[in-house]
Amino acid sequence: MASLSIRDVYKTYPNGVPVLKGVNIDIEDGQFLILVGGSGCGKSTLLNMIAGLETVTKGEIQIDGKTVNNLSPKDRDIAMVFQSYALYPSMTVRENISFGLNIRKVPKQEQAQIVDRVSNTLQITHLLDRKPGQLSGGQRQRVAMGRALARDPVMFLFDEPLSNLDAKLRIEMRSEIKLLHQRLGTTIVYVTHDQIEAMTLGDRIAVMKDGIVQQFGAPQDIYDSPSNLFVAGFIGAPPMNFIEGKLVEQGSGVGIELDTGVARKVLVLPFESSKVRSHIGSNVILGLRPERITDARGAHGDDGKLQRIEVKVDVIEPTGPDTLVFAQINGKRVVSRVHPASNPQPLANATLLFDTSKAVLFDPTNEERIA
């Protein structure tokens, strides 16, 4: 196991294009770090810099307290699993897993023991004599992971390893990777553009955009308290609702004016800080997760604390365990999760219950979180 420290790291290509702009990340021994963001955000470049496949323009990368900027990949004691399986088609699974051991001249008897251990861990013992062309996508990905495991490195690097798999297999392989981490306790750095993978796998998540880490922290903290509109919209499926409206005084507190086309109402918000009150009279953006907007059947706990607002339903999307209801509020489409037995109907009115206990406020000017 090994800790990882990325300190004020920049990457600029020879043509002057900046890719990373002052990245700072620290994880402890055995943690699972997710680098998540859209295409071109710099996450794969950062992973390649950790691996030693890309040079560092400025800053420092430390593995277990040792600066590795100038170390070659083979001297960093890491193993990498790529998006493409990169298996040798003419070799059996056994030969693919032991290939790196052969290069390092590990004795044959020890190689056999390592292959047996790795194949048992990944449940691919019955595949050892097959070649990659005889395997499914999920089996090939396990073999690629097995080749990395055979190294017994201090750190694993995964570069979007599940992107080529179908939806069902992705879910299965996510569970396999998480179980593998629990068994081995080895530090993992994992790149993905899929926020579901990020939320389900990581101990720590770094949300990236344009070469900058927008937010770094535990998955639930990022989900509940996103630092800006980008993070709030990127993490969560369906994404957080954004409702822009005027912040007004409401008794001793504050509220936001809402217009659904059916009703006008001030939604009371649980904020009392001077920072929030300084925005009274100005437009703000209210962030609410879809599960915080429901109906009487879908409400949990004391629904006496929930605020009722009547809306006109635009579209419904049944998902099985719940139904997504889309309606217009302040000119924006808002999605809520209601109980399927409620049977909402398109173009009909419905009463939704708003839970503002987890509400987030953003400044529309700089898109940063106010509260």
Automatic annotation (TrEMBL):
<keyword id="KW-0472">Membrane</keyword>
<dbReference type="GO" id="GO:0005524">
    <property type="term" value="F:ATP binding"/>
</dbReference>
<dbReference type="GO" id="GO:0055052">
    <property type="term" value="C:ATP-binding cassette (ABC) transporter complex, substrate-binding subunit-containing"/>
</dbReference>
<feature type="domain" description="ABC transporter">
    <location>
        <begin position="4"/>
        <end position="235"/>
    </location>
</feature>
<dbReference type="Pfam" id="PF17912">
    <property type="entry name" value="OB_MalK"/>
</dbReference>
<dbReference type="InterPro" id="IPR003593">
    <property type="entry name" value="AAA+_ATPase"/>
</dbReference>
<dbReference type="GO" id="GO:0016887">
    <property type="term" value="F:ATP hydrolysis activity"/>
</dbReference>
<dbReference type="InterPro" id="IPR012340">
    <property type="entry name" value="NA-bd_OB-fold"/>
</dbReference>
<keyword id="KW-0813">Transport</keyword>
<dbReference type="InterPro" id="IPR040582">
    <property type="entry name" value="OB_MalK-like"/>
</dbReference>
<dbReference type="InterPro" id="IPR017871">
    <property type="entry name" value="ABC_transporter-like_CS"/>
</dbReference>
<protein>
    <submittedName>
        <fullName>sn-glycerol-3-phosphate ABC transporter ATP-binding protein UgpC</fullName>
    </submittedName>
</protein>
<dbReference type="InterPro" id="IPR003439">
    <property type="entry name" value="ABC_transporter-like_ATP-bd"/>
</dbReference>
<dbReference type="InterPro" id="IPR015855">
    <property type="entry name" value="ABC_transpr_MalK-like"/>
</dbReference>
<dbReference type="InterPro" id="IPR008995">
    <property type="entry name" value="Mo/tungstate-bd_C_term_dom"/>
</dbReference>
<keyword id="KW-0067">ATP-binding</keyword>
<dbReference type="InterPro" id="IPR047641">
    <property type="entry name" value="ABC_transpr_MalK/UgpC-like"/>
</dbReference>
<keyword id="KW-0547">Nucleotide-binding</keyword>
<dbReference type="GO" id="GO:0008643">
    <property type="term" value="P:carbohydrate transport"/>
</dbReference>
<dbReference type="Pfam" id="PF00005">
    <property type="entry name" value="ABC_tran"/>
</dbReference>
<dbReference type="InterPro" id="IPR027417">
    <property type="entry name" value="P-loop_NTPase"/>
</dbReference>
<dbReference type="GO" id="GO:0140359">
    <property type="term" value="F:ABC-type transporter activity"/>
</dbReference>
<keyword id="KW-0997">Cell inner membrane</keyword>
<keyword id="KW-1003">Cell membrane</keyword>
